[in-house]
Design a protein that fits this description.
By secondary structure, this protein is of the alpha/beta class. The chain has one domain: 2-Layer Sandwich (Guanylate Kinase phosphate binding domain), CATH 3.30.63.10. Helices cover about 35% and strands about 20% of the residues. It is built from seven helices and eight strands; from the N terminus they run βαββαββαβααβααβ. Strands 6-1-7-8 form a four-stranded parallel beta sheet. A hairpin with a 2-residue loop joins strand 4 and strand 5. The radius of gyration is 15 Å and the shape is globular. It starts with 6 loop residues before the first strand and ends in an 8-residue tail after the last strand.
Length: about 160
Amino acid sequence: MNKEHTRIILCGKAASGKDFARQLFENRNFKYAVSYTSRPKRDGEVEGKDYFFLSEEQFKDLIKIDYFYEYVDFNGWFYGTSNQQFYEDNIFIMTPSGISKLLPEDRKNSFIIYFDIPEHIRKERLEIRNDMDKPKRRFKTDHDDFKDFKDYDLRITNNNGILN
């Protein structure tokens, strides 16, 4: 594995524009590391494009064999990045909890973009989204997960809501 591998990590609360930004990077030939998750599939999500969907048991089995570079339990569902993806791909979406697991040498080769979008814009986006997770619950979890988050290289605030 190449520890000198450079990567961009997108981080932000729910409905902050991470997926939109990821698509912009993919359109420029960045290779997105499709995360693994144990959460149910949303309408329109595609296996292997949006996530690799696993049962909780499958996810835990992969944890046992150190398959993941990082993984988190977020709102009762697991999310993670495999070791192979972390050292081969170059665009990622992670939570502050996932970022906190970066090894120091890997953090040096990672550029973290934090999407810090106003709550009212995110709330509008979440209400439109067909999601099994309620906005109120997401806001509480995000508030806890992002409390004192400062490990980023670029912070984007978008008061006009242009990012979708």
